[in-house]
Amino acid sequence: MGLCALLSLVARLLALSVAVVLLSLVAVAFYRLFIHPLADIPGPKLAAVSNVWQARHVRDGRARELGKTLHEQYGPVVRVGPNEVWFNSAEAFREIYRTLRLL
Protein backbone atom coordinates (compact mmCIF):
# COMPACT_ATOMS: atom_id res chain seq x y z
CA MET A 1 0.00 0.00 0.00
CA GLY A 2 1.43 3.33 -1.04
CA LEU A 3 1.61 6.49 1.00
CA CYS A 4 -1.15 8.12 -1.04
CA ALA A 5 -3.51 5.20 -0.43
CA LEU A 6 -2.69 5.22 3.27
CA LEU A 7 -3.38 8.97 3.55
CA SER A 8 -6.65 8.50 1.70
CA LEU A 9 -7.70 5.75 4.11
CA VAL A 10 -6.80 7.90 7.13
CA ALA A 11 -8.77 10.84 5.69
CA ARG A 12 -11.83 8.64 5.14
CA LEU A 13 -11.63 7.23 8.66
CA LEU A 14 -11.29 10.72 10.12
CA ALA A 15 -14.28 11.96 8.12
CA LEU A 16 -16.33 8.96 9.24
CA SER A 17 -15.37 9.57 12.87
CA VAL A 18 -16.38 13.22 12.68
CA ALA A 19 -19.69 12.26 11.05
CA VAL A 20 -20.43 9.71 13.80
CA VAL A 21 -19.65 12.24 16.55
CA LEU A 22 -21.84 14.93 14.95
CA LEU A 23 -24.70 12.48 14.39
CA SER A 24 -24.45 11.37 18.02
CA LEU A 25 -24.63 14.97 19.25
CA VAL A 26 -27.67 15.66 17.08
CA ALA A 27 -29.36 12.47 18.29
CA VAL A 28 -28.77 13.36 21.95
CA ALA A 29 -30.07 16.91 21.42
CA PHE A 30 -33.17 15.59 19.63
CA TYR A 31 -33.85 13.12 22.44
CA ARG A 32 -33.46 15.73 25.17
CA LEU A 33 -35.68 18.25 23.37
CA PHE A 34 -38.51 16.01 22.18
CA ILE A 35 -38.48 12.53 23.77
CA HIS A 36 -36.99 12.96 27.27
CA PRO A 37 -39.47 12.66 30.18
CA LEU A 38 -38.82 16.34 31.02
CA ALA A 39 -39.32 17.53 27.41
CA ASP A 40 -42.74 19.07 28.18
CA ILE A 41 -41.45 21.27 31.00
CA PRO A 42 -40.86 24.86 29.84
CA GLY A 43 -37.45 26.46 29.90
CA PRO A 44 -34.64 27.59 27.63
CA LYS A 45 -34.08 25.05 24.86
CA LEU A 46 -30.31 25.26 25.22
CA ALA A 47 -30.68 24.40 28.91
CA ALA A 48 -32.58 21.24 27.96
CA VAL A 49 -29.69 20.15 25.73
CA SER A 50 -26.67 20.91 27.93
CA ASN A 51 -25.57 22.12 31.37
CA VAL A 52 -23.12 24.48 29.67
CA TRP A 53 -25.92 27.06 29.48
CA GLN A 54 -26.26 27.21 33.27
CA ALA A 55 -22.50 27.13 33.83
CA ARG A 56 -22.10 30.17 31.59
CA HIS A 57 -24.59 32.14 33.71
CA VAL A 58 -22.76 31.12 36.89
CA ARG A 59 -19.41 32.10 35.39
CA ASP A 60 -20.77 35.50 34.35
CA GLY A 61 -22.08 36.16 37.89
CA ARG A 62 -25.76 36.06 36.94
CA ALA A 63 -26.75 32.92 38.87
CA ARG A 64 -28.46 34.89 41.63
CA GLU A 65 -30.91 36.62 39.31
CA LEU A 66 -31.29 33.65 36.98
CA GLY A 67 -33.96 31.81 38.97
CA LYS A 68 -36.19 34.87 39.33
CA THR A 69 -35.85 35.75 35.65
CA LEU A 70 -36.60 32.20 34.50
CA HIS A 71 -39.67 31.85 36.73
CA GLU A 72 -41.01 35.20 35.52
CA GLN A 73 -40.60 34.08 31.92
CA TYR A 74 -41.58 30.38 32.10
CA GLY A 75 -43.74 30.00 35.22
CA PRO A 76 -43.45 28.10 38.52
CA VAL A 77 -41.70 25.05 37.01
CA VAL A 78 -38.62 25.55 34.79
CA ARG A 79 -36.26 23.06 33.16
CA VAL A 80 -32.74 24.40 33.67
CA GLY A 81 -30.71 21.36 32.60
CA PRO A 82 -31.11 18.07 30.78
CA ASN A 83 -32.11 16.40 34.08
CA GLU A 84 -32.79 19.40 36.33
CA VAL A 85 -35.99 21.27 37.15
CA TRP A 86 -36.43 24.31 39.41
CA PHE A 87 -39.64 25.07 41.34
CA ASN A 88 -40.59 28.35 42.99
CA SER A 89 -43.41 27.35 45.30
CA ALA A 90 -43.44 26.39 48.96
CA GLU A 91 -45.75 23.46 48.18
CA ALA A 92 -43.26 22.00 45.71
CA PHE A 93 -40.43 22.46 48.21
CA ARG A 94 -42.37 20.59 50.90
CA GLU A 95 -43.32 17.78 48.50
CA ILE A 96 -39.78 17.30 47.18
CA TYR A 97 -37.97 17.51 50.51
CA ARG A 98 -40.50 15.88 52.81
CA THR A 99 -39.29 13.14 55.12
CA LEU A 100 -40.96 9.79 55.00
CA ARG A 101 -42.21 8.52 58.33
CA LEU A 102 -41.45 4.90 58.93
CA LEU A 103 -44.08 2.85 60.72
Blueprint (SSEs and pairs):
Elements: H1 3-35, H2 45-49, H3 52-59, H4 63-74, E1 77-81, E2 84-87, H5 90-97
Antiparallel strand pairs: 1-2
Helical content band? 55-70%
Element pattern in H and E: HHHHEEH
Cα Rg: 21 Å
Q: Which regions have little confidence, pLDDT < 50, spanning 5+ residues?
A: none
The fraction of residues assigned to DSSP E strands is 5-15%
Distance between the termini: 75 Å
**Number of E-type strands:** 2
Mean pLDDT: 89
Shape: elongated
Biggest sheet architecture: 2 strands, antiparallel
Strand order, sheet with most strands: 1-2
Number of domains: 2
Structural class of the secondary structure composition? Answer: mainly alpha
Mind explaining what this structure looks like?
This protein is mainly alpha-helical. The chain folds into two domains: 1-35; 38-103, no CATH class. 64% of the residues lie in helices and 9% in strands. A two-stranded antiparallel sheet has the order 1-2. Strand 1 and strand 2 (84-87) form a beta hairpin. It is elongated, with a radius of gyration of 21 Å.
The gist of it:
This protein has 103 residues and is mainly alpha-helical.
Keywords:
5 helices, 103 residues, mainly alpha, single chain
